[in-house]
Amino acid sequence: MCLIAILTVLVWTTGCRRETVQEFQIELPATPVLSVRSKWAVVVSSHLRLRERPTIQSGAITTLWRNNVIEIISRDEVQQEVEGKLGYWYKVAYDGLQGWVFGAYLEMFDSESGARRAAQNSSEE
Fold it and tell me: What does the pLDDT look like over 100-118, one tens digit per residue?
């Protein structure tokens, strides 16, 4: 009987308990939407450094050569001038590597097949 009374009191206090729910409003900073029409590119300079970050001072990961086909991942927000050329920095993937290249040395394409055809045609000339 004593056990039933204790259980009844526990059930009653648990059921009557009101919790105050606090509402939190989290404001996140605006995130720029990076839009890139082209998803693929062909290197049009004799050589192009794939860099760790989107700056000319950043270390090189490897060198890309004319007619290499690369996948575009994203584009930096602001155009910059490098070696007298105005362009964007692009984050790209090539042969299992990811890094940044300067876009003034790229020809953009909407498809991988289009980029590969252009690279093939250019190397035959």
Answer: 999 999 999 999 999 999 9
- DSSP one-letter code for 83: T
The length of the chain in residues reads 125
Which tens digits make up the pLDDT trace of 55-97? 999 999 999 999 999 999 999 999 999 999 999 999 999 999 9
Phi-psi region of 22 (alpha: psi -120 to 50; beta: other; left: phi over 0): beta
Are the beta carbons of 77 and 54 closer than 8 angstroms? no
- The CATH code of the domain at 40-124 is 2.30.30.40
Q: What are phi and psi of 5, to 5 degrees?
A: -65, -40
* Torsion angles phi and psi, residue 96, rounded to 5: 85, 0
Give the DSSP letter string of 9-23: HHHHHHHH--PPPPP
Q: What are the structural domain ranges in the chain? A: 40-124
